[in-house]
Amino acid sequence: MKKGNSLGLVVVCTVLALIAFTGGYYSGLSRKSAGSSAENERVLLKKIAEQQEEIQSFEKRGRQALFQPDLPPGSSTDAEEVNSPSRVRSIRDLLLQARAESSPIARLSAFAEALSDLNEDNLDEVLEAYESMPFGFEHMQEYRMLLYAWGQFDPAGAIEYCNKRASGMGAGFATTGVLEGWASRDPESARAWVESPENAGMAKLYNMGLVRGWASQDLQAASRYVEGLEKGDETGRLVAVLSNEYSKQGFGPATQWAEGLTDEKMKEAAFANLSRQVSRDNPETVAEWLQDHVDQPYAVKSFENLGKRWSETEPESAMGYFEELPEGKARNEGVEGIMENWAKKDPRAAGEWLNEKEVGPGLDPVLSTYARVVSNKDGAGAMEWAVAITEPKLQEKTVRQVGQNWYRQDKEAVDAWLPESELSPETQKAIQSPPKQNWWQKLTNR
To answer: CA-CA distance, 69 to 61, in Å (whole number)?
Structure first.
């Protein structure tokens, strides 16, 4: 197999592994082998280290034999010696050597090269190399490749293996990897298995693997399958898989597919995913596409994505586009998304833009967004913007949040300001009792 193909398999399997196991892979896995795995791995790695010199010497002689085939018999590069059974590395040896790699690129490339030739004849050998490798998140890429390759020729055996190594949701997540490989070869059989009554409880999870594999083989059929499913929370994730595949054909074909969807939830998910993918690097292209959908509920999230992504590079251009849109939710969501990023990146420029606008109900949500973002670093300055909001409920909510951030920064200044603020006693008390922030809130508010 060519190295390019091996590296391609690495990339595909690694990306698909991150989508499939987002939020924790193999949660609730069986820990039967956990106690001895560390000792087993130390023994294996010691053995590998002892074999490295011999392996490197063998590879050197193999290269010499390849490029110097006319050397006389009896030399150190004799073809008989190079091809001797004792000198040929098995797939098990390749995998054991791969496990010793410290570089993740070299490690996964070696696994991909070995598993690209997985078949019934060498399966036992491969499983032996995997035996002491924990069946969990820390080795998700390696197991993802194994289950995908195994699922292409023996899905029943691979699924049985998953159920032996894990239970519950852990086995279910692992089985999605098998289904992906299975559906890439025989989608109808894989579909029949997912739809069988005994798999009904896990069908929504299994559909992730089925659709990924099916879409790689027959995108239109996979799309029809998803359209026919009962709609639920998982629909958006399945549509994301489809839109990623359609995007490989180009933005034009992908948008035609999205526009042709008849189910509103699927259409909303497809529009949102495409806008999220393209908006940062090609915002004008997305802006032109969405222009014809400005008054449609399914496009609101897409306009929000456009505003946020576009504002990362050209906030003023993004504002100019959204200001030209008719009043409505799409415009409001876009402008607020732009202001959130702009206020973080360049609060002075964003403040100057606001200063040029007439204060009123239409500007209130943008003022609130600006004040909340700026208050993470400058509570006193942000309060001046918060009190300028005209809508009473939004003003009270924003003043409270800005005040709490200010209180965290300068307790004495806030205590001196509050008696003259004319705020209600409840709001003043809330400002002086800010909730404790966790590490993630502190990080994201920086």
So the answer is: 11
